[in-house]
Design a protein that fits this description.
By secondary structure, the chain is an all-alpha fold. The protein has one domain: Four Helix Bundle (Hemerythrin (Met), subunit A). It is built from four helices and no strands. α1 packs antiparallel against α2. The longest helix is centred in the first third of the chain and has 40 residues.
């Protein structure tokens, strides 16, 4: 993993574990693994179509769910994309989307590893 693109805040996972137990954490991971790829694909589709509102909404959703699980790099990139899309600046967001794809894949790997340890 590239430390520049991957930042995992393990305290976020611990907070979820304290909030609802290990089963709750696994549920949250499963939800992210089920819905995260769709949100990422919506960002990419919105970029391709020039649909700033779709990019904005999808980046916002991805930002929130990644942040809840400690995916700080994904959260930060999604925040930047969300902000740029809100201003209609999709050209400036394009290179960030490519970085988001890489960070997302690395974060997904971390979550899958955590989930496998938990079951």
């Amino acid at each position: 993993m590239n430390p520049e693109t991957m930042s995992l805040d393990t305290t976020a996972m611990e907070r979820l574990r304290r909030l609802g137990g290990q089963e709750f954490l696994v549920e949250m991971i499963d939800l992210f693994l089920d819905h995260g790829p769709q949100r990422l694909e919506s960002i990419r589709n919105g970029m391709h179509a020039g649909n700033a509102p779709l990019v904005h909404q999808s980046a916002h959703s991805l930002k929130s769910t990644a942040g809840n699980l400690g995916g700080r790099a994904v959260q930060d990139l999604a925040q930047e994309i969300e902000t740029l899309a809100a201003g209609g600046e999709l050209d400036q967001a394009a290179p960030l989307v490519e970085r988001l794809v890489v960070g997302f894949d690395e974060f997904r790997t971390c979550l899958e590893r955590e989930r496998n340890r938990s079951t």
